[in-house]
## 1
Amino acid sequence: MKKSFFNGLAAVLSAMFVLLTFSCESLEGLVQTPEVSMDSVSIAGLDLEGISFNANYSVKNPYGVSLSIAGLNADVNYKDTKITTLNSTDGIKVNASSTSSNKFSFKVPYETILKFASSLASGNASSQKTLPFDIDGNITLDVSNVPALNALGSNTVTLPIVTDFEVPVFKPKLSVSNFSVKMPTLNDLKDQLTKGGLGVTKALQVATTLLSGNKLSANIFDGIDMDIDVVFDVNVANEGGADWNLNIKNCALNTAAGSIADVGTADGSSTLSSDKSKVSMKASLNTIQAGAFIVQLLNKTGTNPTFELDTGLTFPETKYAKNIPLKYTAEIPLSSVGRK
């Protein structure tokens, strides 16, 4: 009886040992793990310093409890050269049994792009259109809410993130030139002024004064309603070799008090490209609304105005989205204002 009892107990203990041994060795293989995928690398925008990228990724949570991202570490590289290292410990929640998308951002300076492009082409960066970059790193997930992984002594899971992307060889050069006040003829001025209620003699005096080039009084446009145009050129170029198209969206001419006039292209076109890098602009200034500013332009005295340009840039030979934001602001020295 005792022997039978002990034999039975031994069999039970043996079975439990086998079960426990199987569980310890096989539990990790049986527990489904989260997945991280790199979805895309996109250009977020450009400024006068460099190109900003978004690295878009997804985390798939197979568990019935939520997870959080405990850390991210990634290197941005050109071949074997590290450009920058990204580190983050911001906790981002991934809901139970779901997939969450997120992104991390970084900037590649233009000077870095041109340096590597020049090294490939004997100092001629303009002969290169794109460069191969990559992201190599990992994401650490906090899995302390997952009992099965806790049983294995794991509170975190680290998963790799690796992807390649291309960088356009691009450094914009924007400038404003030939800023001038477009003066009407003497007869045109006389006609406009007399239509506004001035007598012929007074209109002729004002018109002559405007066209003389002499310093104008601050109140010369008082009671006069007429438009005077300012014209200038916007020049865009690329120090690299990437092809580009630039779509002009919004432009404005501003003073210290705010916007003084909307600006448009003189011929109605709104696109520049690698083949056409200059566009003529025009703004009409009304003497009632902007008389004091017109006097400042013609007298070349006062606070310099600024020109603001809002554009969308497209690299037609890459897979990046069209009309990537690029803004430009230029101060217009009053000393450079001409007359036409």
## 2
Amino acid sequence: MRYITVTALSHTGLIREHNEDSLVVGPWTLCGTVTENPQTLVFPMGTPLVVAVADGIGGQPAGEVASALTVRQLASLGPSLDSEEAVRDALVLCNHAVYAAADRDPALTAMGTTVAGAVVLPDALLVFNVGDSRVLEADGDGDGVRQVSVDDSPPLREGQRTTSLVTQAIGGATRFCAVTPHVTTAPLAVGSRYVVCTDGLTDPVLDDEIGELLRAHDGGRAAFELWKAAIEAGGPDNITLAVIGVVE
């Protein structure tokens, strides 16, 4: 029998005063809090399993509220996310939920969040995102990682590697703005590994280093070493990540 392992953590980093990231793994959510150590969960293959991170938009009100609303919505819909269309519809619902909450409370106006994740099906992975949080696939031959999500970011200038700007998000504007989620299907096999993460990991840590760490470590140690690399690079933002594996 095949199993899905998910090892996750969420941390404030070294610069931010509080954590505006949230995380969902199946029915389990972690919103705006810090895990002392990587947490590993094991699920039997079968019912759709959603794993996602949401990164509240900094510099705008209540990013942690927007990210928490998003992952809780995905947790409630998780078992029904069995197709690309279902995932797109769920992300549209998340967007409406964030704007509806802001309409009810003026203090939440323009709150927003990015979101990225994957739904694990018995023979495929549904990869999705809105914004610049990412899903990375560890190459089966151990050579590195490749990004399988699509950043919603403006074009980078020559020599520029990262940007904090996003071209779409869940919420994030003073008036309702529709989203066009990125959703794709990837094959899934025993030995497959994916990293779902906020830009608190990918901004300070190069893909080559992420690939090296995943080649050297697995499970909780892999998640810890990825977090450690972001901290050693200055920990400029909240760091939330989940490492998904498929094992016999």
